[in-house]
Specification:
This protein has 321 residues and is an alpha+beta fold. The chain has 2 domains: 9-152, no CATH class; 229-319, Immunoglobulins (Immunoglobulin-like, Sandwich). It contains 8 helices and 9 strands. Strands 2, 3, 6, 7, 8 and 9 form a 6-stranded antiparallel β-sheet that branches. The protein has a 3-stranded antiparallel β-sheet with strand order 1-5-4, with no helix packed on it. A hairpin with a 2-residue loop joins strand 8 (306-309) and strand 9.
């Protein structure tokens, strides 16, 4: 007689069960099985009863057959293995034949028969068969999930790699743009520095040329100064300002004479004597014509050498070498 019953999870040996969390289909199967571990009672009639039930009920059953059928009934109903079902439970679930046997033999005799019989071995065999069937289904479902995972894993890995490659390409493009911008900035800085250097070199060249010209002028001036002679000019006159000019400067500039400090002599009242006016000129050796200007009036020094040319009278100044 076959029973459409699933055993409870506690009846499986721990080493023979696969982890339900490994595959999604196993979790669904485990959830539905745990929620409804036994078949509905109404279906036991179609599983446990048959055309031969009443006939076997009327016929005598061996102790082994009786214990076997009672244990299968208990397993289907989720009852303890060695418990004798009540007559009501047996009748309501389509086993009047077993109910009649229990009534005839008595609960006590049937209980002792179940306890003394080799029920443990029988239950083990039944459970082993159920376990093998479930394990087969589990392995089949695991194979399907494994195939699905094997198909999905390479694609997911390839997509992940492609995302990583795209991310790295984006970073590379960004770094290349930054590097290009940095290179452009360096080139601009180089160009600006080159222009600044060229400008500095041009200004330095101008400065060096100016220095060279000034050096040449200074050298020429020094050479010219080597031939200059110090000449003292003295002139006696009464006036507020006394100046001198001549051919030594092209008659263009007047050189002011300074009043010489007066001596200890004093002039008598009402008598004015000439005062001494002096200056120093630096002239090259030669002969020059000079003339004095006293309060804007041109004068000659009668104590000096005089020359007249073209109706113009001047003093002569001789500078010896």
């Amino acid at each position: 007689m076959a029973l459409a019953v699933l055993p409870s999870p506690a009846s499986f040996p721990p080493h023979s069960l696969l982890p339900f969390s490994s595959f999604p289909k196993f979790r669904v199967f485990h959830s539905s099985w745990s929620a409804n571990p036994v078949v509905p009672r109404g279906s036991l009639a179609s599983c446990c009863s048959g055309k031969k039930s009443s006939r076997r009920g009327r016929a005598s059953k061996s102790n082994e057959e009786l214990c076997h059928e009672l244990r299968e009934f208990n397993l289907a109903m989720g009852l303890p293995e060695n418990r004798v079902p009540s007559m009501k439970e047996l009748c309501e679930n389509g086993r009047k034949d077993l109910a009649n046997i229990v009534r005839r033999r008595g609960y006590k005799a049937i209980t002792e028969l179940l306890l003394n019989s080799n029920g443990e071995s029988h239950s083990g065999k039944v459970l082993e068969g159920k376990q093998a069937s479930i394990n087969g289904n589990l392995y089949e479902t695991a194979g399907e999930d494994t195939e699905l995972y094997q198909d999905w894993a390479p694609k997911a890995h390839e997509q992940h790699n492609q995302n990583e490659i795209n991310h790295l390409k984006g970073l590379l493009d960004q770094k290349e743009a930054e590097l290009s911008q940095l290179k452009q900035q360096i080139e601009n800085e180089k160009l600006a520095l080159s222009n600044l250097h060229a400008k500095g070199m041009a200004e330095l060249g101008d400065i060096q040329r100016t220095i060279a010209e000034k050096d040449a002028e200074l050298h020429a001036a020094e050479e010219n100064l080597d031939g200059l002679k110090e000449v003292h000019i003295d002139y006696w006159a009464n006036g507020q300002t006394v100046e001198v000019t001549g051919s030594f400067n092209g008659w263009q500039h007047r050189v002011r004479l300074d009043l010489h400090p007066p001596s200890g002599q004093t002039n008598p009242p009402g008598l004015r004597k000439p005062l001494l006016w002096t200056t120093v000129l630096w002239l090259y050796p030669g002969v020059y014509e000079i003339k004095f200007i006293v309060d804007d009036h041109w004068r000659i020094d009668s104590q000096r050498e005089i020359i007249t040319s073209g109706g113009i009278t001047n003093n002569l100044l001789r500078v010896d070498g």
